[in-house]
Specification:
There is one protein chain. By secondary structure, the protein is mainly beta. The chain has a single domain, classed as Thrombin, subunit H (Beta Barrel). The protein has a 7-stranded antiparallel β-sheet. A two-stranded antiparallel ribbon has the order 1-2.
Length: 110
Amino acid sequence: MVHSNSIFREAEPTEPRLRLNLRCSLNLSGSRLDAALYNISYSGFAVRLPEGQNTFPLAELKSVTIEQIDEFEVCARWRKDDRIGFKFLSKRGARPVLDEFFAGIGEYPT
């Protein structure tokens, strides 16, 4: 998540994030888009889509499957150019899955 008190300031992350490069899939109504996850926290994550693929209606989004982690129900927090930021609909459900993944790779959001 990002916090900004002014439209003239750069957004600042409000909680620790881990930079990663993992493949993921946006599961839409009737289709799927491949993307790359580039950062993650206990609240959500951000993905980068291939150029020109960020034009679908966000209402079509059902879930996101992150390779090596799991599938999560999410909602979009922001959208800009070829990037989308998501928050977990259930942080309580995501936390144990993320803890297991972070322990497995030996890195945590900092």
